[in-house]
GNAT family N-acetyltransferase (Chryseobacterium formosus), 172 residues
Amino acid sequence: MTNKNEIQFRKAESSDILIIWEIIQQSIERRRKDGSTQWQNGYPNLQTIESDVSKGFGHVLTVNDDVSVYVALIFNDEPAYSSIDGAWLTTGEFVVVHRVAVSENFAGQGLAKKLFNYVEEFTKSQNVLSIKVDTNYDNLAMLKILESKGYTYCGEVYLVGGERKAFEKVLI
C-alpha cells in the first residue's frame, strides 16, 4: 500500500450492508478453500450483518472510501464468554471482536492488522479495559494476527459453531 491510500475506521451504515455481505461471502469461501469449518454452517448470514449495523455493532475500515474490512464490536455482551475453559485476564468491561472479514480486493495488504490498531484505539477512547476475541482452531491467519498484536491465549469458549480459542488483550 502506498501513503496515497486514505484509511478510515467508522461505524457501518445501512448503505454499506450489501458490500459488507459480499465481503462476508468472500471470507466464507476463503475459509472453505482453506479447509476450515469456521463459517461453513450458514453463519454469519445477511440477517446477522443487518442486525450488527442496526444495533451499531458493525464497523468498517475504508480505503479511499471503499469498504475493505468489516468487524462487529460488541460491548460487554457475549454469553459464551461467561463460561471459559481457562481464565480471562480481566473481569471488567470489554469489547468483543466478531466477524472480521477482509474484501478480496484488499486481501494480503495487512488491513486486518491495521483494523486491530483502530479497534484498540476505539476501545481505549471508550475507556474500556480490554478486548476479547475468539477464533477457530484452524483459522491460522487470525491466530497469527492475534499473536502479532499481543493477544494472550486464555482458553476455550463454546459457541454455536463449536469450540473456539479465546484471547484477550488488556489495554488500560
In short: Helices lie at 17-33, 46-54, 111-125, 140-148.
